[in-house]
Amino acid sequence: MEYEFLKVEHLDGITILKISAPKSLNALNSTILKELGGFIGSLDDKTRVLIITGDGEKSFVAGADISEMTHLDEPQGFEFGKLGAQVFRAIETLPIPVIAAVNGFALGGGCELAMACDIRIASSKAKFGQPEVGLGIIPGFSGTYRLPKLIGQCYAKEMIYTGKVIRADEALRIGLINAVYEPEELMDKAKEMAAMMLKNAPVAISLAKQSINEGYDLDADGAIGLENKLFGKCFATADQKEGMDAFLNKRKADFKGE
Ligand code: CO8
User: Fold this and answer.
1) For residue 216, what are the domain limits?
2) 62 lines ligand 1 (CB under 6 A)
3) What number of other Cβ atoms are within 10 A of residue 168's Cβ?
4) Measured between alpha carbons, how far is 219 from 215 in angstroms, rounded to an integer?
5) Does the annotation mark 185 as catalytic?
6) In whole angstroms, what is the distance from residue 91 CA to residue 190 CA?
7) Are 153 and 236 found together in one domain?
C-alpha cells in the first residue's frame, strides 16, 4: 500500500515502519494517524516483529500536530484524542512484539506512541517528555494512563505537571525505556532484538504478551487465572510439541507459528 507519511520496509519476519513528516519533525496529524491505523490493520503473518521509528536523524515523533490542534473545538478535540488513542491501542494489542526505536524527540504524542509499544530502545540523543500542559492541554493519546503504569505515579506526575523534557539516560533510569545506544547503532540493536524474538515460538510470544497486558489490569486471582488459561492453551499448539521435542533431541526447534 502507498502512504504519504509512512515508509515501510519488510525484512525476514521483521517490518520496519518509519513515521515520515520531515517538515514538522514527524508530528502526528490526523492523516498520519489514519494511515497508521490502516497500516496496523493491514499487517499479516509476514510480520512477526514490528519496529517503529522516526524518519530522519532528529525526531521520533515531536508530538501531535500543533498546527492542526490549534483550530479544534471541544467535540473536535475529543474526536482527535479518540483517534490517536484508538490507533495506539491497536498497536498495543497487536498479537506480535512491537519495538519502538526512539531516534530523537519523543514528545507528547511521540512519547505516548513509544509507550504503546512493548519495548522502547533509544538513541543517546533521544529526548522524552509530556509537554502538553504548556500548550493548555493534557496528554490525550493515553499518556495519563500509560506513563504512571510504566514508571509509577510519582515521576509521571512530575513529568506531566512540569512538562520537563528528559534525556535518554534519565528515561532509562526511571524505567521508561529498556536501553540506550549510540545513534548509529540503534537500528541494528532493534533488529538484533527482533531476531532473538524470531527464534522463539510465535504463538507463545503472543500469548505471553496477552497475559502480561491483560493480566496487569486484573487483580491477583484474575491475572494468575488468565495466565493459567493461556499456559494451558500453549499445549494445543504444534510449536509446544516442536519446542520440547527439539530440546529433548538436542536439535534446533523449527517453529511454524501453529
Ligand atoms: N506540531 C506541529 N509542528 C511541529 C511540532 C508539532 N508537535 N513539533 C515541531 N514542529 C515543527 C515546528 O513548528 C517547525 O516548523 P517550521 O520549520 O515550519 O517553523 C519544525 O517542526 C522544526 O521545529 P523547530 O524549529 O521547533 O525545531 P527545534 O530543533 O528548534 O525544536 C522541538 C525541536 C523541541 C521538538 C520543538 O519543535 C518543539 O518543542 N515541538 C513541539 C513539541 C511538543 O510540544 N509536543 C507535544 C505536542 S501536544 C501533543 O502531542 C498532545 C498529544 C495528545 C493530543 C490529544 C488531542 C486532543
Assistant:
1) 202-248
2) yes
3) 23
4) 8
5) no
6) 17
7) no
Residue 105, helix vs strand vs coil: strand
Q: Among the options 57, 79, 132, 192, which is catalytic?
A: 132
d(CA 31, CA 96) in angstroms, rounded, equals 25
Confidence check: pLDDT of 146 > 90: yes
* % of the chain at pLDDT higher than 90: 99
CB 133 within 8 A of CB 163: yes
Neighbouring CB atoms inside 10 A of 181's CB total 18
Residue 214 annotated in active site: no
pTM confidence score: 0.97
182 and 59 part of one domain: yes
Cell, residue 29? 496529524
Q: What is the dihedral of CA 62, 91, 211, 198, to 10 degrees?
A: -100
In a domain, 158, yes or no: yes
Is residue 97 in contact with ligand 1, taking CB distance under 6 Å? Answer: no
